């Protein structure tokens, strides 16, 4: 979708929102898949209520993009614009065991920065790509830990109230790859409380997790991490593997040879290819195991 009305363009300027015409979402997602639309880069959190009022008043649909690492975007000209926060400098400020983190901060860099300041707890998340905001929204987890455990407070834009609000930890529920945030809430910043740990010890934990990840996941390839959530008490990857589906493909969308719950873009896969592969694998798992796999990847398909 393109914003060409000069009045809207002028107002975006007044709100210090940068308009990038016809951005290729394939370049902004780890899968390297996705069509084109206008990208609105937000410099000041406080401009959000006015920005959203402006878009709604002009019937411009929108979606919030984080780091694009858990996302499958549709092909072609997209029927909505995309909003993304500009990462401020600094994006992490420490005060004792408390970390004030901007949602646009890179998750891995935030963990490393905290580690260097003897704050640990999140070692398991070190190889997870994406922003802190994205990790919060999905309650990213790995190797027995999840980001939600360390959250004390979240600042977010709530589409329902059209306001910026602050939620305390007891007002948010963090479950397995799921939170109580509404789909149209936009994460702005978070306060984490992290346990003190010597850097050397954290580093050792990070190395172990890195090694485990390297040996079991296709890190060098374009993917969105795991495609399906694990059903209670089972592993989606193991089930897909047991059906002999590693290497199964539709166009350039392939089930990884390394981890069967990672589907990779092996060249120029389209969203159509990837969605067809997802549907095919889901159907086979349903037929053979009687389990309906749920997407872990977020799909923006028109
Ligand atoms: N397995 C296979 N074949 C495969 C993949 C896995 O047999 O192709 C087996 C493994 O040998 C193991 C079991 O399945 O016995 C579980 O595999 P793994 O330890 O890789 O964990 P997972 O359940 O597949 C989950 C998360 C990952 C996270 C890892 C490590 C989900 C959907 N996946 O994977 O998260 O990195 O544990 O904690 O919860 C993600 O969220 O995108 C993601 C990749």
How would you describe what is shown here?
This protein has helices spanning 6-14, 48-57, 107-116, 132-138, 199-216, 236-242, 271-289, and strands spanning 17-24, 36-42, 62-64, 71-73, 81-85, 92-95, 98-102, 141-142, 145-146, 151-158, 163-168, 174-175, 178-179, 186-193, 222-226, 249-250, 253-255, 262-265, 298-300. It has 302 residues and is of the alpha+beta class. It has a 5-stranded antiparallel β-sheet with strand order 6-7-14-10-11, covered by helices on one side. The protein has a 4-stranded mixed β-sheet with strand order 1-2-5-3, covered by helices on one side. A 4-stranded antiparallel β-sheet has the order 15-18-17-16. A hairpin with a 2-residue loop joins strand 12 and strand 13 (178-179). The protein is globular and about 55 Å long. It starts with 5 loop residues before the first helix and ends with a strand. The relative contact order is 0.13.
* Strand percent estimate: 25-35%
End-to-end gap: 11 Å
Bound molecules: uridine-diphosphate-2(N-acetylglucosaminyl) butyric acid
- Supply Rg: 20 Å
Average pLDDT taken over every residue: 97
**Based on helices, strands and strand pairing, what is the structural class?**
alpha+beta
Give me the side-by-side strand order of the main sheet.
6-7-14-10-11
Number of strands: 19
Low-confidence stretches: none
Provide a count of the helices.
7
H/E order of the elements?
A: HEEHEEEEEHHEEEEEEEHEHEEEHE
Q: Percentage of helical residues?
A: 25-40%
Shape: globular
Main beta-sheet strand count, sense and barrel state: 5 strands, antiparallel
